[in-house]
Write a structure and sequence with these properties.
About 45% of the residues lie in helices and about 15% in strands. Strand 5, helix 5 and strand 6 form a beta-alpha-beta unit. It is globular, with a radius of gyration of 22 Å. Strands 3-2-4-1-5-6-7 form a seven-stranded mixed β-sheet, sandwiched between helices. Helix 3 crosses helix 7 and helix 5 runs parallel beside helix 6. The termini are far apart. It has about 260 residues and is of the alpha/beta class. The relative contact order is 0.15. The chain has seven helices and seven strands. The chain has two domains: about 30 residues; about 220 residues, Rossmann fold (3-Layer(aba) Sandwich), CATH 3.40.50.1110.
């Protein structure tokens, strides 16, 4: 009788292990499914405030079945913060909330985010032919196998703000970089959205002026106001970045109207 009970117990354990493995396999296969074709793709470039340094909270981990992100290893997975992978401190950025707002405007569309921002980088480090620019082009072209580039989101300038020469040439250099990027990605008519730096930092004022100039020089381009967002610190907080993402979406949708 004891042997009989032992055999039943062992059988149950074996079945439980097998069932657990089966469920794990099924779960893995769900997440291994490829991202949909014909996604609306958005290239996220710039420095740390595009990458995001906001504290990740539960709401930032909620996945939307129609919003994807391209990983460091060029794999698609459901998007959640942090989107970027440039620094250990990477957290909430503006990209996720931007994508959620775009999805609200077009619920049937699938959205793909292409994170490429790197903290602490200057505009010169993003010029054509440099490693950051080349990596962004490579990642964008890989992503475009699954859809069409729909927008370019840029947030950068803190690293240039303290250098008068860099400030004086910022608008022209940004115009040139964006123009070349559009050519390299065959995306001459793709909307570009720029964002102001934190206004509480007085050293950012001159770059914000140049960003406004650049937005007028660059075709199909808009500038997002940072008014009321951020404090006297280098990075926007998570809540402000979510608001910033909403503002980016508002300006993008104005540009993207047929």
């Amino acid at each position: 009788m004891k042997n009989h009970h032992r055999m039943i117990t062992m059988t149950r354990k074996i079945c439980l292990v097998a069932l657990t493995a089966l469920l794990a396999s099924a779960s893995a296969s769900v997440f291994a499914e490829p991202a949909p074709k014909q996604m609306k793709l958005f290239l996220l470039i710039g420095q740390s405030n595009m990458s995001g340094r906001g504290k990740v909270e539960a709401q930032d981990q909620v996945e939307n079945p129609r919003i994807f992100m391209l990983t460091k290893d060029l794999q698609w997975m459901p998007a959640k913060d942090p989107l970027h992978f440039d620094k250990p401190a990477t957290g909430v950025g503006l990209g996720s909330e931007f994508a959620r707002e775009i999805h609200k405007a077009d619920p049937k569309a699938s959205i793909g985010l292409i994170p490429c921002a790197v903290g602490g980088t200057s505009l010169d480090q993003w010029k054509s032919g440099g490693p950051l620019y080349s990596a962004a082009v490579t990642r964008a072209k890989e992503a475009m196998k699954q859809g069409k580039l729909a927008g370019i989101l840029w947030h950068q300038g803190e690293s240039d703000s303290g250098n008068p020469k860099n400030v004086a040439t910022y608008a022209d250099r940004l115009d040139g970089m964006i123009g070349q990027l559009r050519k390299d990605l065959d995306a001459e008519k793709v909307p570009v959205v720029l964002g102001e730096l934190i206004r509480e930092f007085k050293t950012n004022d001159s770059i914000n002026v140049e960003l406004a100039v650049a937005a007028k020089k660059i075709p199909m381009c808009a500038l997002v106001s940072s008014e009321g967002l951020g404090k006297k610190q280098l990075h926007f907080g998570a809540a402000d970045l979510r608001t910033f993402g909403q503002r980016y979406a508002v300006e993008y949708l104005k540009l993207a109207k047929p």
